[in-house]
């Protein structure tokens, strides 16, 4: 929309909803004929290169189907909503400036929670990360108590998880121009983080 009517200004606004593109993984998560794997610790104290039952630890065997939907209909479909609004103005021939506002939310995100293991079964530990995004740093990881190893502690529910919902809002200020001689485009932008 051009509020001035001179063809040099545009007010812009939009609302969009994007549905998550879900593939075969949504079905395979709860299919009883799924591929499965298990990591077992093996030591070879007799050095024969053959795994024997007494050399394999923390390997309880395959438990069968351990994942299921939280309800008979499965989870709600994940989606993202985005609202944008802004103004763009041509300030001279071949140059424009723009200010845009963006607001985005991600809802009904699908995750897996193991309901058979309480949060108290995890112990936080700090590990060093030598090549973090800003250099060396630390991270917290969680070890599962050995008392909760095995098939009896598998009850994975595939459902919408509120803790996965995210959102953000930001401003974008930009200027772009085109020189006639080289037909090249020069541009700068300033983007604000979520307040």
Provide a descriptive summary of the structure in words.
With 195 residues, the protein is mainly beta. 2% of the residues lie in helices and 49% in strands. The protein is elongated and about 85 Å long. The mean pLDDT is 83.
Provide a short characterization of the protein structure.
The protein has one helix at residues 25-28; strands at 9-19, 41-42, 56-57, 67-69, 79-92, 95-107, 110-114, 122-132, 135-144, 156-160, 166-178, 185-191. It has 195 residues and is mainly beta.
Descriptive key words:
five-stranded antiparallel β-sheet; three-stranded mixed β-sheet; 195 residues; 1 helix
Low-confidence stretches: none
Shape, principal axes of CA atoms: elongated
Quickly count the helices. Answer: 1
Spell the H/E element sequence: EHEEEEEEEEEEE
| Count of strand segments | 12
Beta-strand fraction estimate: over 45%
Could you tell me the radius of gyration in angstroms?
27 Å
Strand order across the largest sheet: 1-5-6-11-12
Structural class estimated from helices and strands: mainly beta
Largest sheet, in brief, is: 5 strands, antiparallel
Taking all residues together, what is the mean pLDDT?
A: 83
